[in-house]
Amino acid sequence: MKSLIVIPARFGSKRFPGKPLAELCGKAIIQRVWDIADAVCRSRKDCEAVVATEEPVAPGEGSALIIDYCEKHNIPVEITPDSCRSGSDRVWAVASARKERPDVLLNLQGDNPLCPPQFIHALLDAFEKHPETQVATPYTRLNWNELAALRESKKDSPFSGTTAIVGADGNAKWFSKNIIPAIRNEEKFAAAGDYSPVCRHIGLYAYKFAALAYFSQAPLGEYEKFEQLEQLRFIENGIAVRMVEVNYPAGYDAAASGVDSPEDLQRAEKLIMKAGELLK
Questions:
Q1: Whole-angstrom distance, CA of residue 8 vs CA of residue 80
Q2: Reduced to 3 states, what is the DSSP secondary structure of residue 264?
Q3: For position 13, what pLDDT does the model report?
Q4: Average pLDDT, stretch 201-205?
């Protein structure tokens, strides 16, 4: 199985301009993400990784700085059109230009320096274990303390953190920025076990080539527009999204998410200092 890991990295983040080049414990975020992808590819056959950024506006500005950084540090980088609406579209722009078509494409966001490599392995393995899989994404089940922390964080950032309903067939039934499912008689369920019924989605995607080709041409889903969750486009169009359950390594619990803001960067720094580096 030939796999291609694409790392979308935009310089022009509204909440955190220049985010890919921001330093996290002495390393640029994009370097950390690349190191994760590179570690995965070094341990798998027929695996390749590349950074994808937007078209540079001018030398020494914006995405040109990302390109310069990657070239200086021997990181493969490709330029994708500004018309890309999402990270998945940027992945497709890279994949569709390949002379040799990859079997599986993986979208590792360039602002996700806390992604354990085993999550990527788990997604790629899912396609080998379940050949019918078209799209795969990971999730973790929250214990009651983690659920309480998610609820607390949503008081200040209601649209951070995505939850999912996972069916008995292992496929996603729905995703939402709201916490789903609603839980009646919560005290009863909490007394019965350590884990809540809430599954937190982890923003990492892998796709068959044909599935991503369809996604790139399909119009935005009706509910995708409201939630601004691109994975809903698959569900709304009848394409199953396989959910792969994963567990964070010690110290890297559900708090280990992407870096969307300077505040997230500070939280990531504290986490690394406390739990240690993901790559030993």
A1: 9
A2: helix
A3: 72
A4: 92
